Amino acid sequence: MVLVLLYADSQIRYFTGLHRDGRYLAQCRNDLAKINLIMGRSTPSLVPRVARLLDDFGALLKLARLRRKLSAETVAQRAGITRRTLSKVEKGDSAVALGVYARVMQALRLENDLALLAKDDELGRKLQDAGIVARLRAPKRSSRTVRRDNENFADEA
Fold this sequence. Notes:
The chain has 157 residues and is mainly alpha-helical.
């Protein structure tokens, strides 16, 4: 068993076991690359068509920023994010939260376009229309009918 701890001073300590007197043996390393092996982060991949749509959306946001002649620093500051995160947004990175995309749109005065997302749901309306049929229910059975059925079942057995 190996216990790994990362301290504030960027030291990684591996506790490999107990010493004879009950103390843990620790090995210190200043190698942060090893922490990535332990705590690697992966995001689920998107369908290629959806990934292209997200890339196009990021490109449109970048084009909107350039049309307004705003620097990346200015938009990032107004959105409350870093320039690196803005760069990820403009590249259509799927790991960026939707709220960050909304804040960038707000910084570019495009927040009203959020109302257009999924506004015209043709497939959903067709499914809803197909499901709207008058459902005829069988009449409820009275308790007497149920008792008679149970008695008949007991007689057959």
